[in-house]
Amino acid sequence: MEKENKKVINRLRRAEGQLRGIQKMIEDEQECIDVITQLSAVRSGIDRVMGMIMAENLKNCFIDPENDPEEQAKKLEQAINMIIKK
Question: Its Gene Ontology biological processes (predicted)?
């Protein structure tokens, strides 16, 4: 779990750096297409982080299920709904 958290934190830091770079691009009045390209890269990175977190949580639901089957079903349903919304 600690290894996965480190991966998530590293990806979030990368996105944070990209966002700071985008702010500088806007301040420097860079081309719109370049700003949009970088924003798209940040969005993709955040989507990957969300996927990593959801996958880890789903895996934990199966490896370490809740004592209450109804609570387990509720958590799985929430995870499925989050995936489908995407």
Answer: negative regulation of DNA-templated transcription
